[in-house]
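Reminder to self: tokens first, then the designed residues, so the page reads top to bottom the way the pipeline ran.
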């Protein structure tokens, strides 16, 4: 009998392990596939950095403020003695079940009337009062021991002290769980930034990933990998408080977090400089006479062309074949192949290629 139970245990554990591997495959492929494309993302897609920090900023600010709001509200709805508290909680449950598409228009109108559309406040304010955390916290507080609360009421009339000493220690696990879920929800915001914000510099990483047509396809997979890291680190940090067995020592988690965010902060300020160091630095001018030095092999000149790459305008060198016209002391008059409004490159610190990105110097 014992042997049969052992075989059943091994069989069930094997099936669960296989299913876990199958579910992990997409994540593993996402991590492995972009191995050679991190350079394109980190050193050639600079809009990624403000969107990354925006996602962290919105998630952190909303979560912290929401925790400060929902804990006393849940305590009041659970322990307060006033009429209508059950009805108020019922309204919160109804709001929690409503999809964003239902509340989208009222939110938009309210933000427009307050004059905070296309601002960070317009993203933070509606999410601070999200009903999910309050409903979960309210249900968890039904099981707390009121003896400690009654004892504290004999010592003080301060609601803040009662919350901090009598309530928070008893609901610590719930607070950590709600913190994690709220942070993840706000970090994954997509519809709100797309609808309430116009400037890309205020938008979030989910918007970046959703607008794949605006960026080089090679940057999306590495962006998805980096996108997963903050929530994963937060889960590792809170795992012990959630009753999970920590998979690595807190010191290692803290070290990895410092290194990751330190590298991201460094690249935020230095990635563009590193990128531009490897590009030709050029000078240009509108010319009626093309200097002889500006004419390359096969009667080619290079002109400045502006194109959008990875969500921002950049300057490139475009080769033009010309037919030199009348020769003067300064150079040649172009007979064809160039217009008077073209910006001709008259100096470059290295050899130019057609379609190559360049940096303009004065």
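Designed residues (362 positions):
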């Amino acid at each position: 009998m014992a042997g049969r139970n052992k075989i059943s245990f091994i069989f069930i554990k094997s099936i669960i392990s296989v299913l876990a591997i199958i579910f992990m495959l997409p994540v593993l492929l996402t991590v492995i596939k972009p191995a050679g494309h991190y350079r394109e993302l980190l050193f050639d897609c600079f809009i990624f950095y403000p969107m990354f920090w925006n996602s962290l900023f919105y998630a952190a600010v909303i979560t912290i403020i929401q925790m400060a709001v929902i804990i006393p509200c849940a305590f009041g709805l659970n322990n307060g003695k006033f009429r209508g508290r059950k009805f108020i909680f019922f309204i919160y449950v109804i709001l929690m079940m409503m999809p964003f598409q239902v509340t989208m228009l009222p939110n938009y109108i309210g933000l427009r009337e307050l004059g905070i559309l296309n601002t960070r406040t317009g993203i933070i304010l509606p999410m601070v009062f999200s009903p999910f955390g309050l409903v979960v916290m309210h249900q968890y507080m039904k099981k707390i021991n009121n003896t400690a609360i009654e004892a504290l009421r004999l010592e003080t009339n301060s609601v803040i002290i009662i919350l901090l000493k009598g309530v928070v220690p008893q609901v610590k696990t719930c607070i950590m769980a709600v913190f994690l879920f709220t942070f993840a929800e706000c970090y994954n915001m997509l519809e709100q930034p797309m609808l309430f914000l116009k400037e890309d510099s205020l938008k979030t990483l989910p918007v970046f990933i959703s607008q794949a047509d605006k960026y080089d396809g090679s940057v999306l997979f590495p962006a998805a990998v980096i996108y997963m890291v903050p929530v994963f680190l937060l889960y590792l940090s809170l795992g012990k408080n959630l009753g999970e067995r920590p998979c690595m020592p807190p010191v290692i988690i803290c070290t990895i977090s410092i290194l990751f965010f330190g590298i991201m902060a460094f690249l935020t300020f230095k990635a563009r400089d590193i990128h531009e160091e490897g590009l030709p630095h050029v000078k240009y001018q509108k010319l009626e006479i093309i200097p002889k030095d500006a004419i390359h092999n096969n009667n080619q000149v290079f002109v400045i062309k502006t194109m959008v790459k990875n969500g921002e305008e950049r300057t490139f060198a475009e080769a033009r074949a010309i037919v030199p016209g009348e020769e003067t002391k300064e150079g040649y008059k172009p007979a064809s192949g160039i217009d008077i409004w073209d910006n001709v490159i008259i100096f470059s610190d290295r050899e130019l290629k057609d379609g190559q990105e360049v940096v303009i110097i004065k």
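The longest strand covers residues 300-309.
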